[in-house]
Amino acid sequence: MTDDHNISANGFRETIESIVLALILAFLFRTFEAQAFEIPTGSMGPTLVGRHKDLRCRSCGFHYRVGASVEVDPHTEVPLPGNDVVQATCPLCRYPMALDPAEAADGRDVLSYKGDRIWVTRAPYTLADPKRFDVAVFRKPEVSDENYIKRLVGLPNETLRIARGDVYVRHRGEQQFSIVRKSPEKIRAVWLPVFDSDFVSPQLIEAGWPARWQPDWQGDAPPEARWQVADNRRQFTARAPGDEVAWIRYWHLVPDIDDWQAIRQGPLPRDYAFPRPQLITDFCEYNSGLTAEAIRRTRPEQLGIGFLGLHWVGDLAVECEWDVPDQQGQLLMELIEGGQRFVCRFDVASGTVDLTIDGRDDFHPVARTSAHGPGNYRIALVNFDDQLLVWFNDRLLRFDRPTTYEGLPAQRPTPHDLSPVALGIRGCRATVRHVRIFRDTYYIAGFQHGEGMLTDQVRNPYLFPHITRQKLARFMSTPSWWGAFDQLATMNYELRDGQYLALGDNSPNSGDSRVWAARGDGSVRREQILGKALFVYWPHAWPAKASIGIPVGHRTVYFPFYPNFRRMRAIR
Fold it and tell me: Of 231, 241, 179, which is closest to residue 202 (Cα–Cα)?
């Protein structure tokens, strides 16, 4: 009796323990599990893409993506007749590429793919609160059963300000706003391409289009201290003897739709009216998709206005590869914002890197590298969020003092901003390759203009009313009109305990806290946040031109596609 009682008691206890353990395991799994989500739209593009077309420019060869969410019903994903995206524009050479098989030169159909599939985990937010610039999935504030994905830019108990493309914060008890700075990994995650010397259009060269990189002929430098540009415009070479300095400058000379139409018709005449250099804007190739219906109902002079960019972006980055055969000399990299010159110098003999800002004698950070003498050097100079960063041979340098600086004295561009990037050498020879320019994300302050344009240009008589491509190009190339940049909208958001401000990376085309604030406070509450976006585990697969055969035992299994490994990555 006693033994039977003990057995029953032990069995009962084990049953209870098993049930409790199962509940604990279920709770832990539910708490820390990773859930799969599919990106539906392009509000985070091109960082994370919704339905899209994956393109390679037929003129320069650059690979980019264009949003195609308009092609299907957002709830059922049923194709919408007449909404096929039939044209997209390359961010580098601005080639307007036909995607309709009937109009494309090669007659190919360009497929649309579903959005990125991502893993989202609850774990980080069960152990700690979300951090600034986290990419998070949450319930839309206005509709509790819809999931949204954005960056959490504002944190609880802060006052956030969006102004001139940047985000500023004021904490409780503070009087002044200070700029919000992205971490180095976030910077490289969100920067957008402006130029890449590996993708220069042969058509533009053959047409006589002026090169964007041109030797700086100013000063008394002798002819041998001038840069030589290769015929394909993909590399630059110079020799600067003694203390001579040789500069080569970037000019933002971009063709538009009309220029490309003229190029297609044959060689451009000698008296062709080439455009003047323009300011770098928040042009976004992801938004450049045009449907046949949009082309039909848009005035020719307004076609493309929605993605060409209405805002000057002064936060830029330049990276390149230097080939130096000499034991000494200096390699120079320059960025200009608001007329202010930021210079990075690498001393070939000592391997030191220093930073300077014109007119600020107290700013002179120095970093030391183990590299020196003849060699191949990869250097990137970044000027984002009032901070200079340098990557040397793919490693972020640490300087002996802070590389942040106070805001610029000029809040508008100057004529110097028409050539905002330069490369130079002093006392050595060098060849430069793989030159790339990037821009920062520009957060629009959400002013809705009467012509349906999302812009913070509150009063700009040079653009509105009746904005056209010609007006926009002329405005961006005419310094005497830039007083309009003094009249830009700003937006402030007061966040209380447990509230976050959510913004999309694709600021011109994102429904986020800026939009929701018009109908409420615009914030996302802590309890609405479902998890942190962790990894793109399945971008769209590539269709196989011929089925791929994989031996399985005595059989061969054929697959009609292969994974897109290049875009499987951690989400920054």
Answer: 231
* Nearest-angstrom CA–CA distance, 328 and 333: 17
pLDDT digits (tens, 9 = 90+) for 412-458: 999 999 999 999 999 999 999 999 999 999 999 986 776 778 899 88
* Torsion-angle region of 47 (φ positive above 0: left; ψ -120 to 50: alpha; else: beta): alpha
Contact at 8 Å (CB) between 511 and 502? no
How crowded is residue 174: how many other Cβ atoms within 10 Å of its Cβ? 11
Alpha-carbon span 292 to 81, nearest angstrom: 11
Reported pTM: 0.91
- For the stretch 211-235, what's the b/e string if a residue is b when 16 or more beta carbons lie within 10 angstroms of its beta carbon? bbbbbbeeeebeeebbbebeeebbb
Nearest to 418 by CA among 245, 254, 230, 237: 254
Enclosing H/E stretch for 491: strand 490-494
Q: Tokens in use for 218?
A: 């100013």
> Quick one: tokens of 70?
């308009």
In whole angstroms, how large is the CA radius of gyration of the chain?
27
| Helix locations, 251-351, DSSP H | 257-264, 292-297, 305-308
Q: Quote the CA–CA distance of 279 and 473 in Å, as a whole number.
A: 9
DSSP 3-state helix, strand, coil percentages of the chain (rounded to 5)? 20, 35, 45
